[in-house]
Amino acid sequence: MHLYLSEGPRTLYLVTSSEDERSGRPRRALVFRAAEGSTSKAIVEFLQKDDVDFSNAVRLSSRAIKGCLGLISVSNEMFLAVVTSATEVGNTRPSASSPESVARIHDVSFYSLTSSTWDDLSAAADALPSPSYTDSVDMLMMQRNEASSAQSSAAAAFEHPCAPLTKILSSGSFYYALEPYWDISSRLSQRLSRDRVSMKDINTFDERFVWNEYIVRSLLDFRDRLDQDERNDLDRCQFIILTIQGFVGLFTLALPAPPTNGSPTVATLTLISRLGWKRAGTRFNTRGVDDDGNCANFVETETLFSTDQHCFSYVQVRGSIPLFWEQQGLQTFGQRIQITRPQASQPAFERHFAQLTEEYGAVHAINLLSTKESEASLTAAYARHMQIAHNVFGADVDMTHFDFHNAVRIGGHDSVIRDLRRLEGINDNMERFGFTMCDSATDEIITEQKGVFRTNCLDCLDRTNFVQDILSRATLEQFLTLVRREWLRAGSLWSYHRELWAENGDALSRIYAGTGALNTSFTRSGKRTLAGVLSDATKSVSRAYINNFQDKNKQVAIDMFLGNLSDQRQVTVFDPIHDSVRAALEQRLSEYSTTKQCTIFAGTWNLNGRPPSSESLLPWLFPQINVPEPDIFVIGFQEVVPLTAQQILQTDPEKRRIWEAKLLETLARHPNKKEEYVILRSEQLVGTALIVLVKAQLTSVIRNVEATTRKTGLRGMSGNKGAVGIRLDYHDTSFCFLTAHLAAGHSNIQERNADYWTIVNGLQFLRGKTIKSHDNVIWLADTNYRIDLENETVRALALSDNLDALLAADQLKQVMDAKAAFVGFEEGPILFRPTYKYDVGTDNYDTSEKMRIPAWTDRILYKGKQLDLTVYSRAELRSSDHRPVFAVFRAEIRIIDSIKRAALSRMLLDSVTSTAPGEKLDEKLASLTFHQDDTDLPPPSSDDAAWWDSPDHPNGVFNVSESSVSTGPQSRNPFDSPSDSPLSSSPSSSDEELYAHALQLPTPMAPTVAGRKPPPPPPPRSNRPSRQNGDAA
């Protein structure tokens, strides 16, 4: 197929070529253009090729186009992604009734629908020499860089907005099905269990593994709205490509057959790895699990062995340990692991295994982590969560621990093969799970796999691939023992099997870690050689560099492609019916959602580097008696450690942990205790720490918890000053909590303002989320803003509780009034004395040599329509030179019922598209869209005449008579539900009853018309309007 462009309006045409048509594809064109004034709404048409005028069109690419991946909005422009180079890998199952061939993508180009700015860059990228189709990504990138440097200086001055996406999609790790009627994203047993219609429907796929689902969704929705014949033609044209990321490899080999005619049996050995996209990312940027149970580096790997009689399928999965853990900061060869939510991981852990058991049946986890050093903490936490999960899943979920490194250290890699097969948990489950086998002639399933092994190490790469190779071979041996025992001794079969698994390990490792896998020399040859050891050492060094210095940009590109960035808008195809339904859904939010109240305690305290004392925290954490316990505690500490050079260079988290224990102890021992609390998340930047504690029962409804930091000291290089942020979603309401320590010094107001803007503009969470991305934001900080009065005056006013005079000179109030910082934030009334600076252990303001001026440095500010401040005060704790401050908020939490929303959406759609007898849908939609009133509108104004300036209306005065008021029949709102609908637009009939009752009331006394002054005449008009005055027609 070919890609053409025409201007006026700018339109792209994806058209079948003569070669396509000779192979049986219809003569059709898929036409794209952007809706006027929009960068996220496209107009798409599926036309006969002969109905398209190509007289003013130019061909954009000299290459044949393989298909399109979808539409994406980037940098306020809309782009069409097309595959410009791909090679066939082969037929994965030749014994099937129809070919099941796979192609590997090598080049993808992005063409703008909204601007010609990038046409030259797209053409230059298209003109690059095709890469050699090797597995060497380094060679591929070197060729690209050399070609790019040879481009013109004008092109080199700009980078295509989609260049990062092009690099990822052209890396050789994406594959698609060459035939439209088979689904590469689904394993064999899943495909064969579908009915005939679903089996050939391209919109039926395993959504966990289709990577372009976000950008292709609008085209799939467009396809679904076509009639059946048009839909079939669109599928036959193969304009739309669904792609997986991972690895596909196959070998065809001859195996000895029974002595009938002497010809051997031709068999095909295939390996397909499907990488999940729901928690996609790079090695140090994406670890563990998310709140929906999706884990990082999740891969389903299927081994297929096909002959003319049977087809064998065996599935395994791998994935990061399903806990909340990460590795922050510079990582070299020592792994610094942090379990971020140790007490709140169980709901997500169980969601993950619930998904696996629903998809695959029983699950047996194989944990290959070491029992020593840093990996031991993960192993212990994994085992603890699995033990609790047994109460939910019983025998369907179990785990075997196998210290891979220790086994290799003692007996070499050969011992791993022997030891694994001897382990009772693994050996028994291999027999129990079995494999899938089908009849090649009829596709009838003879036996089906009943469970799956889930293998993991730290990265789920090298050790995991080694063990999965062993399990794949052992299960294939089981199958061959049943169907053809002599093939067990076929050396070529096992040689190809080892090669496929080695290539699989390299491919998955390059995607996640940037280099090929370790241990693949042993996987390929069965031997550990010096060359293999040196290769592994080189790869380890390369990984350390790539993961620390290159992966962040790659992570952003991945998130952009998957639609994870918070400011992204998904491209939709123009469809007034569905657009109207979406708008109506937003207006009727209350019909499919509910709200509930929650209480949030926010507290901030500068600890002056001191550890907990014997002083109780109860006056601070529970200032009110006989009130319900807060649902969420948000505690911000500053100077949790002394701000020394050693702490700045390498912060000690132990002091924070001591304070965490003190908080938990206080919550557990307060007199009216009714609830258990757990630490949801904590984070530290040198001396600044933020801790969020929640009721244990809420951990299952609080999701997407993330933490981040932003340094502001020494112009952003030092963490002695800065901020820590934690964000979360409580049901469907988002919160962002921030604690900060801003620049010190009485007169350094501008520095503090600059710190604030550095934090607001530079503090980012994952997927591009910022502070502004949230419904509710609460700052609890040592802002360091002071009071601009003399020391003696401040002290006298403070001791006499003359707070108004002090507040008038408060720097933060002045800054907020001038909108120099904390724009849009509110603060409760300050009814307490300044909280800084005291002699420790006393109620006396600073009597040291420096005699600091008292000030309200410790503040809590907030923004959010759902937040209602109920208490704002300070606590009289004396173990620091600051007094702690606290605020209590009531917040409204929105809970959306997705089932009700879907039902309402269907009902609204039906109400628009249904027609009465004799009514045409086109006419109904036109009347809904273009409603014309009984009275015509006046003609538009021009430079020479205005509609209000006419003899009939002197001085622009109009008399409104009763006859001008429309009394004709009003069109029914298309989104009003039928009166008998369970989802009526009116929650009750009370309004209708009141209206009916009002009609029966006596007519009220007719009002008299009050006189009024005529409106002032319009401004005088000159022959030509003045541009300076901004006049417009």
TrEMBL record:
Residues 976-989 have a biased composition (Low complexity). GO terms for molecular function: phosphatidylinositol-3,5-bisphosphate 5-phosphatase activity; phosphatidylinositol-4,5-bisphosphate 5-phosphatase activity. SUPFAM superfamilies: DNase I-like. Its EC number is 3.1.3.36. GO terms for biological process: phosphatidylinositol dephosphorylation; protein transport. Keywords: Cytoplasm, Hydrolase, Protein transport, Transport. Residues 931-1033 are annotated as: Disordered. Residues 1013-1022 have a biased composition (Pro residues). In the central section; belongs to the inositol 1,4,5-trisphosphate 5-phosphatase family. Belongs to the synaptojanin family. This is phosphoinositide 5-phosphatase. It comes from Gloeophyllum trabeum (strain ATCC 11539 / FP-39264 / Madison 617) (Brown rot fungus).
